[in-house]
Structure prediction request, 68 residues.
Amino acid sequence: MQFVVTISRDEDGVYVVTCPAIPGCVSQGDTEEEALANIQDAIRECLEVRREQGLPLSIPTRVVEVAA
Prediction:
């Protein structure tokens, strides 16, 4: 499965990664590479929990275009 993730840095310089298609799925790392590896683990764990709870594995996400 493939998921879109967002990457940002917090005020301490830590990379924070979220997966918008999976509510509450967030991870972090000291480097971007570490954060991306950590979100992969977090996604697997979130999917397992959602499966166990009978929840949909993900929620719909869409890309929208906005004129700037």
Observations:
- The helical segments are 32-52.
- The longest helix spans residues 32-52.
- The chain has one domain: 1-68.
- Residues 1-68 form a domain with the Double Stranded RNA Binding Domain fold (CATH 3.30.160.250).
